Amino acid sequence: MEITLYQVDAFSDKAFGGNPAAVCILKNWLSDELMQNIAEELNLSETAFCVYENNQYNLRWFTPVSEVRMCGHATLATGHIIISDLDHSIKTISFHTASGELVVEKLEENYYKLSLPADEVMAVFYEDGLNKLNIDYESVFEGKDDYLMILKDEEEVIKTKPDFKAIGKLDKRGVIITAKGNEADFVSRCFYPAYGIDEDPVTGSAHTLLTPYWSRRLSKNNLFARQLSKRGGEMTCQLKGEIVNISAHARTIIKGSLYL
């Protein structure tokens, strides 16, 4: 069996920036075990598998160790591949996923708007091991998937060296650290060791929690964000009711084949 494989750098207009995602466009679903093996073999933070059936695009995502509930950058990458490489007549795609309908809309060449459901920001009133992560935070919140830790400033975000082993034992997917940016409205870093990703380069799903928090704190609905990983990425985030719109670049880096 031969499967066409793409690798896309999402949330960056430059090669080797942003977050790389693998995209497999399938005629029919593979077994869960095979999709997990492919994701482990490719060893990127996410591999997306997409099947068009029942008049809709269906999308799932796997890290090297498990399937996830939602992934922003691999959704953006999949939308980019379909629009730019497979069907130039399409400008907007709605993906059916475990997290509901996720939409990718082409705005310009290699520039898209990704629409995701906003996460609910809830205060945390207990420590439960959060003070043992080697992260000097001022306050902490939580969403459906992650803990959100507010740091003093951008410099603290940059210099933080968290305890990945301790983070991997938490009852959430992982930890987001964030602060008001020096040039961006806010900056962040994301850590997901339990999913085989000590630090994720750029995390779309994290911004469904970051955007509501910073929108309320800064009293503005349109925000410019930077994720300060080694690869780095940037995006414009808009809170619109219960939706977070993320506008960002994506570019194809690799096109090839998997032989199974």
Can you give a write-up of this model?
There is one protein chain. With 260 residues, the protein is α+β, with helices and mostly antiparallel strands. 18% of the residues lie in helices and 44% in strands. It has five helices and 16 strands. A hairpin with a 2-residue loop joins strand 3 and strand 4 (56-62). The longest helix has 15 residues, at 72-86.
Keywords:
44% strand; Diaminopimelate Epimerase, Chain A, domain 1; globular; 16 strands; alpha+beta; eight-stranded mixed β-barrel; 260 residues
Question: Nutshell version of this structure?
Answer:
This protein is of the alpha+beta class. Helix content is about 20%, strand content about 45%.
Number of helices: 5
What would you report as the Rg, rounded to the nearest angstrom? 18 Å
Q: Under CATH, the topology of the largest domain is which?
A: Diaminopimelate Epimerase, Chain A, domain 1
Structural class: alpha+beta
Task: Please name the CATH architecture of the largest domain.
Answer: Roll
How many domains make up the 3D coordinates? Answer: 2
